[in-house]
Amino acid sequence: MVILVTGASVGFGAAIARKFAKENHKVIALARREDKLKELQNELGSDKCQIIAVDICDTKAVKNAIDNLRDDFKNIDVLVNNAGLALGLSRAYETDINDWERMIEVNILSLVRLTRMLLPKMVENKSGHIINIGSIAGTYPYPGGNIYGATKAFVKQFSLNLRADLYDKSVRVTNIEPGLCGGSEFSFVRFKGDKNMVDELYRDANPIMPEDIAEAVFWVATQPKHVNINRIEMMPTTQASSALNVYKHK
Ligand code: 8X3
After folding, report:
1. Tens digits of per-residue pLDDT, 98-110?
2. Distances in Å between the alpha carbon of 83 and those of 127, 185, 190?
3. Which of 3, 5, 11, 130 could cysteine-pair with 78, CB 3.0–4.6 Å?
């Protein structure tokens, strides 16, 4: 198979790229940071890994790179929409509107554009798989999850609606919904580089790891063709959805 993974320079994306390459599939690794992508390519080998160093939000550059892929990488079987981010954990009335817009731009707009770009060929080939990396935040609300959770709820519903359009086209769609995950830059980005907050969050939490996500992605992609896994929701054993809050007026 040929797999295109976005946000592939570190974390989930790099783990997914490693897993598929290890299982002898070809990986197109897309991300902004060329140095990180080159390291990954050196590790996996250029016969197994092609890199696209672009900003996922630059649709023209993404399209241009995809149109110019090496012949043996041209036929993309699986798109893993992994690129995404959370910015801040402030209450909705205090948050920075630019953070909200950025999350909508990356988590929704860039995902939608790339999916729309690749879908026609999958439909024409009567084969393909869109694997979205959603989040438990798309199902369970929590304070400060506001727009991040809403973007992931979008991704969940978009995945289900894609299924409705593709059930007769042999193209599969899956939403993988992880909870607290370590070993990635996710929380570092969310807390804007505040290492103490990151350390505090993960201390003694035994979170799931990028390799756990990669296993789930690989599993859904390698099910028999007649099987579509709609959703996988995964949390560390130490995490659960929170109790409902009741504020008591004094
Ligand atoms: C991130 C998972 O638990 O931080 O998608 O909301 S969580």
Report:
1. 999 999 999 999 9
2. 23, 12, 14
3. 3
Atom 5 in ligand 1: which residue has the minimum CA distance?
135
Give 103 Cα–ligand 1 centroid separation in angstroms.
14
Residues 174 and 159: beta-carbon distance below 8 Å: yes
Nearest CA among 80, 88, 106 for reference residue 187: 88
Beta bridge partners of 231: 175
**Domain range list for the chain:** 2-234
Q: What is the structure's pLDDT at 245?
A: 86
CA distances from 55 to 15, 58, 244 (A): 20, 5, 39
> How far is it, in rounded angstroms, from Cα 127 to Cα 172?
8
User: What CA–CA distance (Å, rounded) separates 159 from 161?
Assistant: 5
> Rounded mean pLDDT of 130-135?
98
**Residue tagged active-site, from 93, 140, 142, 148:** 148
d(CA 40, CA 57): 22
Pocket (CB within 6 angstroms of ligand 1): 135-137, 178-180
Of 119, 190, 104, 87, the C-alpha closest to 154 is 104
Instruction: Tell which residue, 42, 30, 150, has the closest CA to residue 86.
Output: 150
